[in-house]
Amino acid sequence: MLDQVLERARGARAAAEAELFELISIPSVSALPEHRDDCRRAAAWLERRLRAMGMEASLIDVPGGGHPVVEAEWLGRPGAPTLTVYGHYDVQPPDPLEEWLSPPFEPVVRDGFVHGRGADDNKGQHLASVLAAEHWFAAGGPPLNLRFLIEGEEEAGGRSLPEHVRANASRLATDFLLIADGSFAAPGLPAIVTGLRGMLYTEIEVVGPRVDLHSGIYGGIAPNPFNSLAHILAGLKDRDGVVQIPRFYDDVVPPSAEELAGWRGLPITEAGELEAIGSSRLTGEPGYSLLERRWARPTLDVHGVIGGFTGAGSKTVIPARAKAKVSMRLVPQQDPATVLSDLREAVSALATPGTHAEVVDLGSAPPVRMETGHPGVAALRRAFAAAFGAEPVLIREGGSVPVTVDFQEALGTHLLVTGFGLPGDALHSPNERMSLDQYHRATEAVIHLMHGLAGGE
After folding, report:
1. Cys-Cys crosslink for 420: which of 31, 77, 111, 442, Cβ 3.0 to 4.6 Å?
2. Is the pTM of this model over 0.85?
3. Which homologous superfamily does the CATH classification assign to the domain defined by 2-196+368-453?
4. Among 29, 22, 67, which residue's Cα sits nearest to residue 49?
């Protein structure tokens, strides 16, 4: 049966690419209200796709939530284990548009890669699992029970899927949960993730005068919120990349000696990272290796500054308020609530006289560690070896998948966290891409995984 399913997948590659292009073409940008209908359209596309293959599928609007959750289920193998597959159909905004070589929602193939927003993050990755399930259904049905949970708020920090999982934990019980939302450690080198950094995303707003003021009349006596914001941002992290928030590092747990030894053997170099990011040098805390800084150390970054006059030409105004988007990636055992409290204290102390600064919590997720001793990891290792011809390595990821902790706490399941993308796929950046070879091999890997989790070798 396995060989029949794999043969079907290999014969359907052109159709698989056409479906990926169709899904990428839907501009499901969850953070922008003008794309709300597009997000629902992407969800409905997936629901129809899952229903057509024989699953019970539905769109779930969580009370008080944003974009719908796609849930599909097939429990046709009594006594067999259950695999739940996670994905997200929402994507990041495509800005800056002028840096795209082709329109972000008009997929184009160049050099074996499909380019378009969401190609890797995460449409190509979860669609590979959808196709794997379809090929099993066409051959008589999957060898195990199967569920899909695909959300539309991962990129916007929404709580619809986490709330749905916690409210329906007993019904959604599962033996294994696959999260494919990352990348290989290096080309040709698949990876299984043992830890994800958490996230605290905030907006810092500084208020000064009651209204915008003429800088010639009031300059020198009126407090300027942008000047104050500059002092705040400069004071939160020094030139060496060390975060200056009091107590910020107190709860950080360093990686084990075994982890560090494994990371030293990975083919990830400073030269390769410099080429990938297009910079003249790397930054970060002194005294820590490249991979420690990427995977096991907390960060603080500014993502945008808002306010004042930004048009062409000049306008001499002291703005009444200024804002900055600031996030922190957190590591075990940092608690987002504790870090938020300490951030607020630091921001208040750094604001200059005559201005008032507030920190708004825009969303958070705690860091997560995953065990690797369960049988699902062994099955995933075999699946990678069969589909890609390489044994996976154990790594951490610097990014966050916020719902992971909800899966872990509410479902108590064995997590399989991995990814089928490649370094350099430009996630969240212009010209995002997905290797079509990786996409097709990912489908075969999930076919093998389903076979292995059901007891096949």
Report:
1. 442
2. yes
3. Zn peptidases (3.40.630.10)
4. 22
